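Data deposition worksheet. Section B asks for the primary sequence of the deposited chain exactly as it was used as input, without tags or linkers unless they were present during the calculation. Section C holds the resulting structure in token form. Section D is free text for depositor observations; keep each observation to a single sentence. Incomplete worksheets are returned to the depositor.
Section A, Depositor: J.P.
Section B:
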Amino acid sequence: LRLDRIRLAAAGTRLDGALALRLPAGTLDGTLDAAAPTLEPWSALAGMPLAGSATLTAKLAGDKGQSLALTLDGKALAVAGVRAERLHATARLADLLATPTGEAELGLERASYDRATATRLILHGKSERPGRFALTLGAEGRAGEAYTLSADAEASFDRSGIELRLERLAGKLGALPVQLHRPLLLTRRGGDLAFAGLDLGFGPGRISGDGALNGAALALHLKAAGLPVHGIGELAGEPDVSGVLGFEATLTGSRARPEGRLVIDGEALRFAAESRSELTPLSFVLSADWQNGVITAKGRLAGPENAALGFSGRAPLALDPQRLTPRLPPQGGLALHVEGGGELANLADVLPLGEDRLAGRFEVDVSVDGTVAAPVASGRLSVRNGRYESLFWGTTLTDVSFDVVGDHERLVLRNFHADDGAKGRLALSGGVDLAAAAGPTFDVAGSFKSFRAVQRDEATATVSGDVGLTGTIAAPRLGAKLTIEQAELRVPRRLPEAVQPIPVTMIDSATGKVLSTPTESGPRVALLALALDVTVDMPGQVFVRGRALDSEWRGRLAVGGTTAEPRLDGKLEVVRGTYDFLGTSASLTHGTITFLGGTRIDPEVDIQAQASSTDVVAIIRISGTATKPAIKLSSQPDLPQDDILARVLFGTGIGQVSAAQGIEIAQAAAALASGGDPGVLDRVRQGLGLDRLTFGSAGASSSLSTVSMPSTPAGVPSAFSTAAVGSAPAPLSAATTAGAGSVSAGKYVANGVYVGVSQGLTGSSSAVDVQIDVTRHISVDTTAGQATGTGIGVNWKLDY
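Section C:
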């Protein structure tokens, strides 16, 4: 059957070729050439999102068995969750349908899947004889921590199946060595699967075992001892866990009637970050038996000072014979029991609290009977004298007390009350429906009364209103209607600079070996994300103060999304307020802060204030976003900015100001530049041909304004360190003489030679500074001033 001409041209993709099918043998002859500059238009046809570009060349021959010569190149690929900056594959194979021979190689560069990345991955195979290939694998990347892996294997292919003998596997995950202590054999024959001889070292721990699936028969035995929990947590994306884990698992019987046993023992377990040093390690033990479709288990989680939780019970458990996945039969009987007690702080490590704090006395004795579809609960969980503290929000719950009581098909929350440490109150009631068709379902409602929900240095807020928790355990939903009775936001005197992450490559200075390379870290996945449906009314008394602003706001916000990715919609409007502009109080005439509902909470700001002078009205407008505000100065009538500043400050035009007043105007321009248009001082400095131009502030004693820093010419080493965090150090005299109403200017007059002058409001406050770079790390600084005299200093610096 011949197809003498094949051509496809669609969505930018081109494919040309010719094929002939040998009907008796079922082999192909021919060629195919394809190029797809973009794969995205083919996503719908493939049934999955595609991205990137690819080229393919294939030559097939079927006269002596099926042979294939193939070259495949891909760039910026994204297929089924796998991303790769580059893919390259080559193959020259013969007798593919019987006992293949030849050579093939697959290479990936900067590939990723979920949280794992592979900077480089190369798999190479070459046949030693028909049907048998020697394989080598090399990979490095990051899966929580940096890893390197290399492996040698031998693969056999025939019509009956595939056999892979892994001779060597070695590498590292972070500082933990990974090594195969003996060859591992994996086979597939039709629908039968097996592995034998597993003996893998992982750090100080070891995993061994064998397993097989022969028809309907199951056979599995795995044993592990001394496994480092931190390494396992890194692979699972939970780097904060640590401890030592051991287990033994067996599985026998058939797909329809499996039987097994599992024993787990964990010691020195920690589930919080290293910063939670006050939390002591825990221990955990579990044993479970699976027979006749029922699993019976018992175990204990123990902490210090006799704080412990013990559990026992039985539940139905069946195995899907086709998918080999476990399931809970709805009509199977339950008999579960949990009991224990102690101080909550000693078990808080196992709760998803992050850096928050939890304390109080608890006692639990709860049983669940009935069936999976209709569970029946009894018993009680009690907490007394509890305390919860959120270190991020500053929220504090004190005198927490409640009971959770089993009432047939419900767990009922009773007598929950808490204080905020002052006059605020929180009350909750409701429960969990264990027998709901969609699984256990929440129905909890509560109310806040003058409750201090936020208590931080930069923000406080007191709220009242109603709150409710609904939905299932897998998909909980938090709804609330809150009113902010009073709030105050204090804007810091200096906003943080925009910081760009620095890619860091760590190198062993003794050997030169690269220990780790920069990689992109994906977002942390929240353990439990609540869906949000919250409205917040602010009728007034919401004050924003700081950075010369004193204002009151009102408005309404709607909070959606989830606790992991909240989305804010709504608008705040100014009620009244003032903005202290250059010593003059400007009244706020307009102000809005608008939240647009995106995943990044960065509201748009539009605030306008007016300050009146003798013959001009200055208009100050703050616009942009909260993280990047811009300040613009205009006037009625329209005047240049320096003239506006002169009239607001001194009630006269720029042409009538004195030299000292001119310095004050320059300082005002610097203040504007720090939060608005930075080009004001830059244009002055460039116009004068200077490398540095700054204006001192009142009381300055160690550094000058950082509005305009030295701009060192290309090739000229700067006398100002750029490695330090914050502003660059000023030359010696400038740093010691700059004060209220002073100006400092300087220029590099030669390679490594800086000359600067400082002038204050009085004639005796002038100073001259000369700084000479002697070596890369040493400079000499000389100063001369009428008030300070003459001095010399030697500076030593080291950028690291």
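Section D:
DSSP finds six helices and 47 strands in the chain.
The CA atoms of residues 82 and 113 lie 5 Å apart.
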